[in-house]
Amino acid sequence: MIRLLVNFLEALLNTFYRKRVYPRFYVLETVARVPYFAYTSVLHLYETMGWWRKSDWLKVHFAESWNELHHLLISESLGGSRYFIDRFIAHGGALVYYWIIVGVYILSPRSAYHFMQLVEEHAYHTYNTFLKEHGEELKQLPAPEIAIKYYRDGDLYMFDEFQTSHPSEFRRPKIENLYDVFVAVREDELEHVKTMIACQQPEAQDTFQSPHDANRSALPESIRAVIDAQTSDIVRAAEEEPVELT
Ligand SMILES: [Fe+2]
Ligand SMILES: [Fe+2]
To answer: 37, 63, 92, 211: which has the fewest Cβ within 10 Å?
Structure first.
């Protein structure tokens, strides 16, 4: 079921978005942002009903959706949402995925996190391929204002918040051109993968904390080992099996 949902999204992008990279990124970022909204909706409901209270999870998932919002704004600034048909596909897909993930998250939070781990892996692959194929031309193009503000000149609290694997040393991307922007976006996708892996661990309910939690302790070694092993596999696979963008 989870693999099927991911395959459908990948097939949609591979079928309709060959040679149209910015609309492809726009659709991907619109749909891929929705699960974080689904998680926060369900967690919010649990809190309101007094069933479960863990504000760190709400905070981190909101920061993840805030990060994906900025990927979306970057794709829009590059013309990704110019055509009605792309907005229609993105909005329709987002609506369908939202309700499916709400249901999956209620029944099995771990499955919902696994789904998002796979989507984020696909996003990492996509941006890695794009950087390899278009790196030189991207270095000649300016960074959009929204990216400069989000990654460099603005308030970076929310940017730091979703990166749960960096307790002491926060990332500070260099943003001088469009290439740097897509490197930052690609690395964000890997940070989402790491957060999703951490959320699936059996001990996560006791150990998972916001990076800004004053009483935060380092990630347990067992979780760190799983994250390191899985992310190195993902990075290797992205190098060996590029996504077909054209
Ligand atoms: Fe993204
Ligand atoms: Fe993502």
So the answer is: 92
Is 245 within the bounds of a domain?
no
Q: How many domains does the chain have?
A: 1
Ligand nearest to the CA of 75: 1
How many angstroms separate the alpha carbon of residue 122 from the centre of ligand 1? 10
For residue 74, what are the domain limits?
2-240
Helix-helix angle 2-16:21-49, to 10 degrees: 150
Cα 142 to ligand 2 centre (Å): 23
Residue by residue, pLDDT tens for the chain (246 residues) are 777 878 878 888 887 888 899 999 999 999 989 999 999 999 999 999 988 777 788 999 999 999 999 999 999 999 999 999 999 999 999 999 999 999 999 999 999 999 999 999 999 999 999 999 999 999 999 999 999 999 998 888 889 888 887 656 788 999 999 999 999 999 999 999 999 999 998 887 777 777 887 777 777 788 888 888 888 888 898 888 777 776
CA 163, CA 134: separation in Å to the nearest integer?
27
Structural tokens at position 155: 């308030």
Centroid of ligand 1 to alpha carbon of 48 (angstroms): 29
Residue 210 forms part of a structural domain: yes
Ligand 1 centroid to Cα of residue 84, in Å, is 21
The CA 49 to ligand 1 mean position distance, Å, reads 31
Q: Could you tell me if residue 132 is inside a domain?
A: yes
Q: Say which CATH number the domain at 45 has.
A: 1.20.1260.140
Q: Which of 101, 91, 130 is CA-nearest to residue 6?
A: 101
pTM of the model: 0.91
